[in-house]
Task: structure prediction
Amino acid sequence: MQLRSGGIGRRGLVMSAFSLFAVEFGQAAPDGQAPLAVSLDAAREAHERGEALLIDIREPDEHARGVAAGALLLPMSQLRQRLAEIPVDPGRPVLLICNTQNRSAATLRALRQHGYAHVRFVNGGMSEWVRRGWPVVVPPR
Result:
């Protein structure tokens, strides 16, 4: 059996698995910046204590199903136009959340390239938030 899929061989799969392990446990990013991810529990705690800004990057139709109270709603499709809303102060942690973590992880990588070293993404996303029965609010339209 050949382990090549889309140009990723065995080494690529092993490195991807290692990267996911490192992200899951909050190890530093490869470039030495702050960890890439934060657990859902830690994100909720920091957000509710006002220690971090939670930014929900899902689209408005997804927000309509419920968001974490107090989260900044900044759809990924509007990010370029609303970039100034993301704090640049490294002392103000920013946590990106989407539905599962795929879009927030991709957005994080883009933001890191532009100097946002204090931004992390939330493992599990809002789908896991809702699955756990945590409170959500429906934002005004």
